[in-house]
Amino acid sequence: MSLNAESTAFRSALEVIRAVEPRVADAIGAELADQRESLKLIASENYASPATLLAMGNWFSDKYAEGTIGRRFYAGCQNVDTVEALAAEHAKELFGAAHAYVQPHSGIDANLVAFWAILADRVESPALKKAQVRQVNDLTEADWFALRRELGNQRMLGMSLDAGGHLTHGFRPNISGKMFDQRSYGTDPATGLIDYDKVAEAAREFKPLILVAGYSAYPRKVNFRIMREIADSVGATFMVDMAHFAGLVAGKVFTGDFDPVPHAHIVTTTTHKSLRGPRGGMVLCGPELADQVDRGCPMVLGGPLPHVMAAKAVALAEARRPDFADYAQRIVDNAQALADGLLRRGAKLVTGGTENHLVLIDVTGYGLTGRQAEQALLDSGIVTNRNAVPQDPNGAWYTSGIRIGTPALTTRGLGTAEMDQTAELIHTVLNQTTSGESKAKYVLDPALADTVSKQASDLLAGFPLYPAVDLG
Ligand SMILES: *Cc1c(COP(=O)(O)O)cnc(C)c1O
Q1: What is the distance between the alpha carbons of residues 248 and 419, in angstroms, rounded to a whole number?
Q2: Burial 256-274 (b: 16+ CB within 10 A, else e)
Q3: What residues have CB less than 8 Å from 359, skipping those under 6 apart?
Q4: Residue 194 carries which DSSP code?
Q5: Ligand 1: does its nearest atom lie under 6 Å from the Cβ of 241?
Q6: Ligand 1 atom nearest to CA at 214
Q7: Which of 39, 87, 218, 339 can pair with 164 through a Cys bridge, CB separation 3.0 to 4.6 Å?
Q8: Is 378 annotated as a binding residue?
């Protein structure tokens, strides 16, 4: 396929859109320009392929397809069946999973599907059996009332937010925290690492129905074999949310004890982070939970997005190619080069380094809050996000950390030498920024910010983004 075809496709699409609402066409063009110019170190973002992007913009969007492959509540779903089955097949092959459910619209939605599949399997089904009925509509008012109370009082043990866990792992502001009675495990204050003995102790005391592993801001590998043993020892269902690191699992950088799929009862993920697909979610599981997982829509999901499932099939096909494994390894090599570059210049990193795609800088080492550091970096053309560090003295809003990740820049082609230059730019900005009169205010010489911005765009100039796309 010629590169020219990509350019023509996007140009033609914009022309069609411009004829209806030019401001949308302009915003789409501006977004590409912005993405091309920024040194994107947001650990959860990436750049999907043109094929993935184009698979989303079509008439699959017009189709209702409630139900599952071959068993729909709507007629005429044969083509949706084709793409959903392809996406599921690619996912199963790629991750070695018995079952894949590719309908979730996002990572949070995938988690809701998993929670309700587990609750249905472990709480609802036994209650139906006990009452000797087939389904909930057959329960008496009293039995139904009792079952609803049961469903709403189950326990979950997950990683604490400030140690890098996710809001959907049972925290009060999120629906998961309202549905579950939650306790957290953290990390060792001295090393910053998960202390598996402590997790086991918490599990023994709390006896959760669900043990959750997975994170958004933990820069290390997790031993899922040990976590599964802990779950088994207390009869918990073991769930792994690999939203952030699915690309490293797909690319076989995380194998053996560090690959969640063979160890977990159920695995959830996003498809748009390190996996480099369209925005979306996915659930993988064994045969035991498959039927319950397939009830995700309409249990907690709105109608499937067939156009996004088409794009998932394309992206998962890409992830099965040998060059994806090379990409995944480069993500980790780059993160390590970035960490080393920062450490060599005197930065303080949570856990002292990284084994995955992300690095968490403790910016108290520079006398800054996360908020001040994030803004100072942004002024200098470097896009990151602030993040809590364990036992964060500045709380969840201002924070004391900056989270940076390499999936996006690695897609663009930057390598370890450029990561060292990136570390230099980050260190220069943070080192030259001083704290202002509040946790949000800071002082940074605008001339320095301009110089770094210029250096950042020079660095990117050698690595064009969507090089075939010229919107000219
Ligand atoms: C990003 C993330 C999610 C949420 O994904 P969305 O697609 O934004 O809903 C869930 N869990 C973890 C661990 C994440 O990092």
Answers
A1: 19
A2: ebbbbbbbbbbbbbbbbbb
A3: 219, 335, 338, 339, 342, 349, 353, 403, 404, 405
A4: B
A5: yes
A6: 13
A7: 218
A8: no
CB 154 within 8 A of CB 210: yes
Tens digit of pLDDT for each residue in 5-19? 999 999 999 999 999
CB-ligand 1 contact for 44 (6 Å cutoff): yes
Atom of ligand 1 nearest to the CA of 166: 13
Q: What is the average pLDDT value for the chain, to the nearest integer? A: 97
Residue type, 99: H
- Asked if 84 and 102 touch (Cβ cutoff 8 Å), the reply is yes
The Å distance, Cα 274 to ligand 1 centre, comes to 12
Domain borders along the chain are: 61-319, 322-461
CA 319 from chain centre, in angstroms, equals 16
Nearest to 329 by CA among 415, 402, 403: 415
Q: Which atom of ligand 1 is nearest to the CA of 273?
A: 1
Extract the tokens encoding 373.
């550091």
In whole angstroms, give the CA distance from residue 390 to residue 413: 32
- Record the tokens describing residue 427, joined without a space: 């260190």
Q: pLDDT tens for residues 243-274? A: 999 999 999 999 999 999 999 999 999 999 99
Nearest in space to 301 (alpha carbons), one of 107, 148, 169, 156: 107
Q: Give the residue numbers annotated as catalytic, written as ranges.
A: 64, 66, 241, 270, 273, 279
Place of tokens 């089904």: 125
Q: What is the CATH number of domain 322-461?
A: 3.90.1150.10
Is the shortest distance between the CB of 260 and ligand 1 below 6 Å? no
The Cα–Cα gap between 353 and 343 comes to 8
The pLDDT of residue 4 is: 87
d(CA 44, ligand 1 centre) in Å: 8
Which of the four pLDDT bands, split at 50, 70 and 90, describes residue 397?
A: very high
SS3 65: coil
- Give helix 78-95 / helix 306-319 axis angle, nearest 10°: 30
- In one letter, which amino acid is 158? G
Q: What is the residue with the minimal CA distance to atom 4 of ligand 1? A: 107
Which CATH architecture group holds 61-319? Answer: 3-Layer(aba) Sandwich (3.40)
Residue 99 marked ligand-binding: no
Spatial distance between the Cα atoms of 49 and 271, rounded to a whole number of angstroms: 13
Pairing mode, if any, of strands 210-214 and 237-241? Answer: parallel
The predicted model scores a pTM of: 0.97
The response to whether residue 38 sits with its C-beta less than 6 Å from ligand 1 reads no
Q: Which positions ≥6 away from 20 have C-beta within 8 Å?
A: none
Closest-lying ligand 1 atom to the alpha carbon of residue 106 = 7
Indicate which residue's Cα is closest to atom 15 of ligand 1: 216
167 a known binding residue? yes
Q: What is the mean pLDDT of residues 119-136?
A: 98
| Nearest CA-CA partner of 89 in 79, 81, 78, 100 | 100
